[in-house]
User: Fold this.
Amino acid sequence: MAKIEKKIKENLSKIFSERRSHSYPAHEWLADKFPDYVKIMLDLDYEIRQKTKIFDEKMHELFHIIALAVKGSNPHNQQHLKAHIKKGIMLGLDPEEIAEALMVCVNPGGAMVLTYSITCMLEALEELDAEGWEKSE
Assistant:
């Protein structure tokens, strides 16, 4: 029984990380300690992002980028924001689209939102380039 539970927890951790476009040690820990909670989060993710929807996955990533940008600049948020920027770009968002969406946030969120987020975007683009990712036309 313990082997089965361990496999279930490992699978939950893998799915949890994949759906969030970046793997964090927190995902594995949560899946191990609170598998029922992670299953609920995955069910919620399915309802929001996997079922038939109005917005495609690319737009969902743009919403994540905006929400994380407005949430604020802190070291823990930076990697999360960059991960969503990278995923958005890989799904077809152009840097100019991301920048325009961030510019819309300046009035309600302040100039820091734009500066911080564009900095993260530039770092994400550098990382994608270093990883050898090429935009498909």
